[in-house]
Write a structure and sequence with these properties.
mainly beta; 410 residues; 5-stranded antiparallel sheet; 13% strand
């Protein structure tokens, strides 16, 4: 059984409700009906039948206080209407409310859901704008005085306060707000079901050409002594994207997502494969839970890897010169690396295997002084046998043999 402090219901004309037993004046007479059209609203009656102080309903009540109206008059826009104008400054931090209520649940077994306030909309309308079970609007009117900026204004202020001083395992879970969507069938594109929509726009009557912006569309904030374990958390499947920014647009080249140095993207959900930027401007990639980056891209374009760098099958490392020409380093077969261009070294070269590829004299390039090659049809002019196939060196002007003499060739 649900006990309701205030139940607003629209009922069919054939439905009748008995007068609630708690709605009586000082003479213990029924006063439900005389207040249907009272201009002064709902109030108590004195002994002469005049309106006096508001009605106070107290004590252990087993029957609700109901207002039941059925009408077809479009000029009636509200079932219960109240108006209150605060014209006297109050005490600092004292809370005032136009409509207030306190519900208390003592220490008892509560197998049912308990709601201090509940509104249910049964909507079968069509052809019009949105309908809602609750519509709350806060307005900051035009300023006509000289008191300066107005106080902060909010349409809804929700708070859940745990005064137990205990962890949630003992005090119970908390939710600042819960939004439930229950439906069947597919969400058709163009007629979306939306869990939470935050809309920024101009008010009605704004001047032509006016603009506005919002500094923070969704703010997660905490003090220095409090924090979130997960500021934003998903525990649901998604068929298009978990976070979709493709419908937005960047203004003044603003980034889609911004991090501070050291904040990382966790790609595997175990804090082991991370991408982060550091204060020096480097992009650090850490894999396998390593304590230092396994790959780093530096601001000048240099890339530093702590392990092997591997390219795909039949793919190449591409080296681009200042003039835009490209040189490719690739592996045509197992154990062989091939470079599609010349190699110039400023240091020494050592090898545990043979170095070189045979070339004929006609295919020897114009080299750099000190360049060495193997010429398959060259011979030393100091060798009367003219045996072909010798190492040759470029002396700056010609290819020579080991003795420095110009080589012979067919």
């Amino acid at each position: 059984m649900r006990r309701t402090l205030l139940l607003l219901s629209i009922l069919a004309p054939s439905t009748a409700l008995a007068d609630p037993a708690i709605f009586r004046d000082a003479r213990k007479g029924w006063i439900g009906a005389p207040f249907v059209n009272q201009p002064n609203g709902l109030a108590g009656l004195d002994n002469n039948g005049a309106n006096s102080a508001p009605i106070n309903i107290s004590g252990a009540q087993t029957r609700p206080f109901r207002i039941s109206v059925t009408h077809n008059d479009p000029n009636i826009t509200s079932l219960l209407n109240y108006s209150w104008t605060w014209d006297t400054p109050g005490t600092a931090y004292k809370q005032n409310a136009g409509l207030a209520g306190t519900c208390t649940v003592p220490s008892m077994d509560t197998p049912m859901s308990l709601y201090c306030h509940q509104a249910v909309l049964i909507n079968n309308g069509y052809g019009g704008p949105i309908s809602a079970a609750s519509n709350v609007v806060a307005i900051v009117p035009a300023i006509t005085d000289t008191h300066g900026p107005r106080s902060q204004t909010a349409a809804v202020n929700l708070a859940v306060i745990d005064q137990t001083g205990l962890p949630s395992s003992k005090a119970g879970a908390l939710e600042g707000a819960e939004i439930d969507l229950y439906a069947t069938g597919k969400d058709d594109v163009g007629n979306f079901r939306t869990g939470l929509m935050i809309l920024a726009g101009l008010p009605q009557g704004a001047a032509s050409g006016a603009t506005m912006d919002v500094g923070q569309g969704l703010l997660m904030a905490s003090g220095g002594d409090s924090s979130f374990q997960r500021a934003i958390s998903f525990s649901a499947g998604f068929s298009v994207a978990g976070i979709d920014l493709s419908g937005g647009w960047s203004i003044n080249n603003a980034p889609a997502i911004r991090f501070r140095p050291g904040q990382a993207l966790d790609l595997t959900g175990d804090n082991k494969t991370l991408i982060a930027g550091d204060s020096a401007g480097n992009i650090d990639i850490t894999a396998g839970g390593a304590s230092t980056p396994t790959l780093q891209v530096q601001p000048a374009g240099d890339t530093v890897a702590t392990g092997n760098v591997q390219v795909g099958k039949a793919k190449s490392f591409v080296l681009t010169a200042k003039d835009g020409s490209m040189t490719y380093l690739y592996s045509p077969s197992a154990g062989l690396a091939q470079l599609t261009g010349s190699v110039a070294l400023s240091g020494s070269v050592s090898a545990t295997q043979f170095i070189g590829t045979a070339a004929t004299y006609a295919t020897l390039p114009t080299g750099v002084a000190g360049m060495q090659a193997y010429c398959s049809n060259c011979y030393s002019t100091a060798n009367p046998s003219k045996i072909q196939g010798i190492p040759v060196w470029w002396n700056g002007t010609a290819w020579t043999d080991a003795l420095g003499a110009a080589v012979g060739h067919p």
